[in-house]
Amino acid sequence: MYQEPIFLKSVFKERIWGGTALKEKFGYHIPSDETGECWGISAHQNGPCEILNGALKGKTLDQVWDSHRELFANEEGEEFPLLVKILDANNDLSVQVHPDDHYAREVEGEQYGKTECWYIIDCEEGAELIYGHHAKSKEEFEQMVADGRWDDLLRKVQVQPGDFVYVPSGTIHAIGKGIMILETQQSSDTTYRVYDYDRPDAEGNTRELHIEKSIEVSTIPHQDASFEVVEDVREGLRSKKLIQENYFTVYHWTLDGDVTEKNENNYLLMSVLDGEGELLVCDQTYSFKKGDHFIVPATMTDYKLRGKAAFITSHSTK
């Protein structure tokens, strides 16, 4: 039985809105000064992560999903269900929306739509997200888009570090300048741009918009999603369940000391936001530090965490 954590090599994505904060805050070796995304836990075809340790070293996460499903509690599905990213919004991201599973399969031929959630790691004072819109009907939405009345249409929300935002498929949204988030999402890269500030890319071209598809998949009128944060303390670990919904369950963990964890027939995705420590299992010790991403497989039934650190952890919701 496989009894070790699975550490992953991050994949970095350059974006027109990216910057250098992934290097400055996490010490990552980024490809350029316009690096927007760190895919920390990914089996997606556009950026699968390589395994860094153990018997599976050198394989990619999608390969292991296909060949060692026991590590993932024999979960069904052709593709690994989740993707975990850290995003550095050095500038405003485009205003966008994602389809649900049905639309993604019927129109794009993709297995998953994209429901996601954001934990605000850091942000500038007064930083804002776009979350939702003010249109009361599809006709009003279409007219406001056609007229370019973006300030009237788009709903802005101020955020601060530690905030959590749930973004179901169909939600108009955009991450604003000066915000760094950890995003937990369905494993999808399907995005429909509604508005991109008419800005040019490196070649002087504006990026493609997807107005018709955006209108088709958007929730109109906007609906705020409701969720309840549940807090639990066990030994040296304070756990906040941020959300439990159809696709994922996400927690914020604060470790200060030791805790013994029992894995309840599931696998756990772990991203270290701050600090450092050790994971102990079967007389073996594995060190972790800020910026590491790893998976506790379903076969690792008992383990201990020791140190002083903060994590975002998640698993698929069956």
List keywords for this structure.
single chain; 318 residues; mainly beta; Jelly Rolls; 2 domains; 9-stranded antiparallel β-sheet; 13% helix
What can you tell me about this protein's structure?
- Belongs to the mannose-6-phosphate isomerase type 1 family.
- Pfam families: MPI_cupin_dom, PMI_typeI_cat.
- Its EC number is 5.3.1.8.
- Residues 240-315 form the Mannose-6-phosphate isomerase cupin domain.
- With 318 residues, this protein is mostly beta strands.
- It has 2 domains: 6-217, Sandwich (Jelly Rolls); 230-316, Jelly Rolls, CATH 2.60.120.
- It has 6 helices and 20 strands.
- The chain has helices at 21-26, 61-67, 101-108, 138-147, 150-153, 211-217; strands spanning 6-9, 11-19, 35-41, 50-51, 82-89, 95-97, 116-123, 128-133, 154-158, 164-167, 173-174, 179-186, 192-195, 230-234, 237-244, 248-262, 268-281, 284-289, 293-296, 302-316.
- Strands 1, 4, 14, 15, 16, 17, 18, 19 and 20 form a 9-stranded antiparallel sheet that branches.
- A hairpin with a 2-residue loop joins β17 and β18.
What is the average of the pLDDT values? 96
CATH architecture of the largest domain: Sandwich
Task: Let me know the CATH homologous superfamily of the largest domain.
Answer: Jelly Rolls
Helix content: 10-25%
**What do we call the CATH topology of the largest domain?**
Jelly Rolls
CATH class of the largest domain: Mainly Beta
Give the helix tally.
Answer: 6
Q: Could you tell me the number of beta strands?
A: 20
What overall geometry do the principal axes of the alpha carbons give?
Answer: globular
